Structures are given as C-alpha cells and as structure tokens.
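Troubleshooting: if your tokenizer reports a length mismatch, compare your output against this known-good record of 182 residues.
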Amino acid sequence: MTIFAVLLLLAQAGAQPTDTAVGPPPAKRTPITIHTAEAPGVQVFFMNLPWGPETFAAMERPGKGFYNRRSWPFARMETTDALRVEGTELPAGNYALVFHPNTPDDTGMSLEVRKIPPGEFLRPGNVMTRTPEGEALWQGPAEFETAEKTVPALEVGITREEQSVKIDVHYGNRTTQAVFSR
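Known-good structure output:
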C-alpha cells in the first residue's frame, strides 16, 4: 500500500498523520551571523558559513565552473597597528580577506588582502557576499590542509605573538593560516 493510500484512509477516518508517519520535522538551521575573533590591535569579522564540502572542493580543483570564477570574501580585518605580509606593508585600516579559487591551469587557491573603505560588507544571512571594491595590497598562495576535526561552519581565530599575528581559518575539514608580521 502506498503512503498516499494510507494518508487517504487516515483522512477518511478523521485521523491525523503523526510525525513518524511522514518523517521527522526538518532540522532548524543555525542563523548565519557575523562573529568576531580578536587580539590586541586586530579584529577579524566573519560569518558562521555552513560547511559546503562540494562547493569548497570545486574551489580547490582546477576548473571553469561557477565556484572557480568567483572570489570568496570570507572575512573583514580591522587593524589599529601596521602589519606586514611577505614584505608588503599594510597600514592600520580596514581590509577584506578574500580567497580566490584554483584556476583552470591549476595555479592553486590564493588569499588576497584588499584595502577597503571603513564599514561592514558582510551581510548576515548572505552566503554569497560580493567582494567589495578596494585596492589589492597583497595576494599569495592559500594552502589548505585536512583537519583532524570537521567543523559545521567557518571558524576564525587569532593568535598575537611578539613579532606576528596569525589568523587561523578552519572551514569544515580544511584549515589554513595567514601570518602577518608586526
């Protein structure tokens, strides 16, 4: 007997189907909101974007698909002190941290640090935030490693040491670190 026939019989009998007859209710999704990681002189604002293994795999593979043509502005960084990254001076200010996907010729993913006007470009609930206008001050390889633990959403942490600031990015089962010198 099909589920339709069962439901029809229940309806005719005046009974209501139970949750077990039609399955459990859908799980509530965690709202996508802006979170902050901070250390003295540096704040990083990011959204708790849910882990999308197929989307991220498409960004890591060489190709010409949608996710290979679109940059991903995953965080905004505010600094009150000047920093350097691989010899490039980053004056105190407001920056977009942007991942660029792998290219068709397999050059690998990259991280861009883009100087942007003050203000927030991240939009709660919007997983497809546009990359803000601004000046790209530095771009270099973004090398991801497989993590021991898979997290359900993007996590960002900051460690400030005497001569450096380290920004750790953990997305699903992938991690990378950007190191800025002070």
